User: What shape does this take?
Amino acid sequence: MQNAGLLEQFVHYYQQNGVYVLSQFNRHFLISIYGVLLAAIVGIPIGIFIAHHHRLSGLVVGIANVIQTVPSLAMLSIIMIGLGLGVNTVIVTVFLYALLPIIKNTYTGMRNVNASVLDSGKGMGMTGFQLLRMVELPLSLSVIMAGIRNALVLAIGITAIGTFVGAGGWVILLSGEPMQPTVGRLFWPAHCQRL
Amino acid sequence: MKKIKRWLLAAAMLVLGVVGLSGCGFPGLAGTSSDTIRIASQNTTEQQIMAYMLQDMIQHDSKLKTTIINNLGSGTVSFNALKNNQADISAIRYVGTDLTTILGEQADRNPERAEKTVKSQFNKKYGMTYFPSYGFSDTYAFMVTQKKAKQLHLNNVSDLKKTAGKMSVGIDQIWLNRKGDGYDGFKQTYGFKFGKVFPMQIGLVYDAVAAGKMDAVLGYSTDGRIGSYHLKLLKDNKHYFPPYNASAVVTNKALKQHPELKSIIAKLNGKISLKTMQKLNYQADNNLVEPEVVAKQFLEQHHYFEGSGD
Assistant: This one.
């Protein structure tokens, strides 16, 4: 099979392993989604909170910025000390990295709602919660969604490293040994570690 | 003040929700909840095939959830995963390697004694159960092409003695200076040395001997390329290379929680011979079939070994 043409190898590979590749794709996707989802659940309320109390915003965004500066491989190792090998470690890492874009975009979106619109809302007798639900959130939604999308792009990249703590995911197809004769050889000298 | 209280309440509920969610696991992602059997596997083809085989067997025979912690860098990493309760099963452990690296003892040339030592030490020291071997062992082996073997009448390693002085031999880098089962000990045991020795990356030796660049090479006995190049393995007639009998290792804690594991894994005892493992490795290394698919096809062929084992 190794002497077959590249295209032939490619077709053969997907015929044989299509289901497996799809399952790893699914796994990769889910790890990223769960991390971002948790980050959104935590990050959006924080963003709203600091938009209303902007004296806190410098501190909170600062902390999120600091998290972002840690290299992802280092972060993965640090979290591994606490959570061990496996998927949970990767999800938490993705969660931490996804916080910044989500918090920051929520904050920016909320702050940029026109003050006169807020005033007219207040003038109509809206309560704080009504104002948030019917004025602020709808007007800042596009910016918040852009933040989540950014976070998701980031997450797919971080999940890729997750294969090194045993979480699986798409990159396993490149880092394991069997693929070494073809594509994998470019990526990982797996043979050195045998036995 | 009331506002702050409300925010605090919301934050507390969030934290609780996140913790609760991670406690019962993420739907669709095996391995996130606490009642899953975690199988540790290294990054070699062989390890991955056996890990998937164990997973398929467990899922076929019981209702337990399983996940594979894949791609670990070495035997020590996967051992530590078991020791630190981050995994329950190590897909393959080799008796010879565990004796020298994990237990830190001298290499033992007596296979039965070595296996006994490792088994009892693992049980006593670490609370892990060494299962009987799958039926194959991975060890260093000298190999030559069939043509050369006929020409020089080679069957055993001792048969190399006459021509050894003129031979160029490709070997594993680490083997040259290895204590216990390295080249120095080899010279003493067999009483001859090779004309020229070329330390090279282990993955290259099979191609080197098949292409005629080397007269003989030292490689791993289970590699799939032995089959694809029709290489002849020379018998280690003086039992110089320590036995790397391959078995599954399970923590006693997992066995206590899920007693059914024992009989499921026992079904694979002695079922995979050296020839079979070579064939399976060949499937993955040469025919571009992923280990997961190789394992599934093999088990389906043998009907998941139903009715065998104890």
Notes: Chain B touches chain A through 52 residues (CB under 8 Å). Chain B has 13 helices and ten strands. Residues 2-23 of chain B form the longest helix (22 residues).
